[in-house]
Records
---
Amino acid sequence: MKQNAKQRLIFALDVDDFAAAEQWVSQLQAKVGLFKVGKQLFTKCGPQVVRMVQERGGEVFLDLKYHDIPNTVAKAAVEACKLGVKMFNVHALGGLEMMQQTVAEVDAYCAASGTSRPIMLAVTILTSSTEETLRGVGIDRPVTEMVPRLAKLAKDAGFDGVVASPKEVGLIRAACGEDFQIVTPGVRPSFAAMDDQKRVTTPTDAISAGATALVIGRPISAAADPLEAAAKILAEIEAALAR
Ligand code: C5P
């Protein structure tokens, strides 16, 4: 159960230099299963930051949210596989063909190289987007309709799950069933500040609602004792899983 809970805690490595990332990984590796490397850190440090996490015993969620023509996304995804990342993501708005080709080329690469397939996630609608944002780009549908629709599209393409707000877990479960991963940021344990997250959920509520894993940054990084904060969150995840 412990290992299980640890795999469900993803720490957002939202720093802009290699040394700081290295310190966080060394400090938190015992409590955190995956470290999320996003566009800022990857653009600054490149693949060496992925290797650094792996060398310290951590695994990587490569959060680059690929969105391009099918061939380009599929080729980028294969490069992510070559880096040995545990999880990566694309934008479901790139469409069915983009996701299908990505699954096909990743599967072919993993079969040929004898490596296990990373967990492939799709972003549905960014939680920073409102209905007004969608109307501005010509999408005249409610977010509550777009999120499950795009999640289902990702599932149909062969993706393993989505990144979503904890508030959307129910809608996505209803559309995609139990055998689908839902990774949620915007989680705030009761001991942490809200920061700029507006629609938040506690780890207990997110796991109980059916989230598979939680992306957590500042509640750990800004805590007086980050390791203790991570341990408390892990305990909360364990308790929710045991219910
Ligand atoms: O510090 P905090 O826990 O808010 O960090 C959450 C992480 O999840 C950040 O890396 C943020 O970019 C990311 N994220 C988010 N909300 C989304 C998608 C990603 O907060 N909808």
---
Amino acid sequence: MRIYVTKDYGEMSRRAANIISAQIILKPDCILGLATGSTPIGIYDQLVEWYEKGDLDFSDVVTVNLDEYKGLGAESEQSYIHYMREHLFDRVNLKSENTHMPDGRIADSGEACRAYNGLLASLGAPDLQLLGLGRNGHIGFNEPGSVFEKDVHCVDLTPSTLAANQRFFEAEGSPMPTQAYTMGIRSILRARKILVAVSGADKADAVQKVFFGPVTPDVPGSILQLHDDVTLVTDEAAYSKAERP
Ligand code: GLP
């Protein structure tokens, strides 16, 4: 595992964006696995800036996102498809037919997951998967206790995750979904390279447990210790408790 410890959120974002842009330059038709949450916003802003300068071209890039709330589509500001359009897809020359997410509007979980699993299988392994970390060490929406051998599936969100994201829904005045469709751990581990971006003191426990604690389903991200190409880009605050026990 490579670890880059940066001064702050801005530096963390630039470093992670650098790694993604290197991937695009080396393989213009690469498959990028993308993530949502507050952490990647600075990364996407940086990629957009380099695109606007003419240094990056997304015309052949294919993207696959990790997850989507069950029940939400693009019309909801809290859906991940809305987030991705706002922060990246509509700001660069990605072709819309090359961007993929689980479809939260499909009410039948089995059907939604089969469709996204099928699509991922037909595309093949992502070249680079970007991940954030939940405060409880979750990746995608694979909550503590998740089975490592799962592909795309429907999950019940835990109280911790509901609490962390509730504020966005309150602001919009809509109830928060309690379930999501997510790539499973097995789907995530198929990526050739994994890039984990983390920032802020409230992630310090997660960083410690995920990267330096025992590999256990209680800390879903800890499985990343067994992947052979993981890069962690973290700021000092998120890395402040990262010592081997
Ligand atoms: C959600 C997403 C994850 C993300 C996590 C952390 O649960 N499903 O993919 O990593 O939030 O989000 P944030 O970056 O806002 O802390």
